[in-house]
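[Structure tokenization] protein backbone as discrete codes
[Encoding] learned vocabulary of local backbone shapes
[Protein] chain in single-letter code, fold in tokens
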Amino acid sequence: MSRTIFLAPVLTLALAACGSEVPSGPLADLDAAQFSAAAHERPFKAECNLQIQPPTPVSPGVIAQIDSGDCQASHLGKSTLVSDKVITLVAGTQTLQLAFPAANGDVLQANGTGTNVMVAPGIVQFTADVTFTGGTGRFANATGRATIRGQANIAEAK
């Protein structure tokens, strides 16, 4: 079974290395740190379908889970998502690390925390606030925040 994750529009996502703008004239003397401070904000939205993997017990009431799947995302196009998380079952909380590898090999990375709520037998709704922490290639200096919302049928994990 797959689950869909929606990343809400991000108002503060600055994909500093994405732009094709090249400074000229007096701006050409700016060093990389000064130029990245002038990064353009770009909204980011993704819809992903993940394959739920069976969790691995970490300690009583705590599990680790790595899921992956396909996404359609702004600034990435057709890409994938790898979600590596630790879930505390009793508290209904999770910490997660995300990687969005693009088709060209550049990777956008994020980490965050969230909650999980059982809404029906085997059905979990989740929300997480994530912070983009850069990545590789054109996403090396990416920053910003997003909210992830979704639902998973954990009874059908394979």
User: Anything to note?
Assistant: Strands lie at 2-7, 46-51, 56-59, 62-73, 77-88, 93-101, 107-120, 123-135, 144-153. Residues 1-38 have pLDDT under 50 and may be disordered.
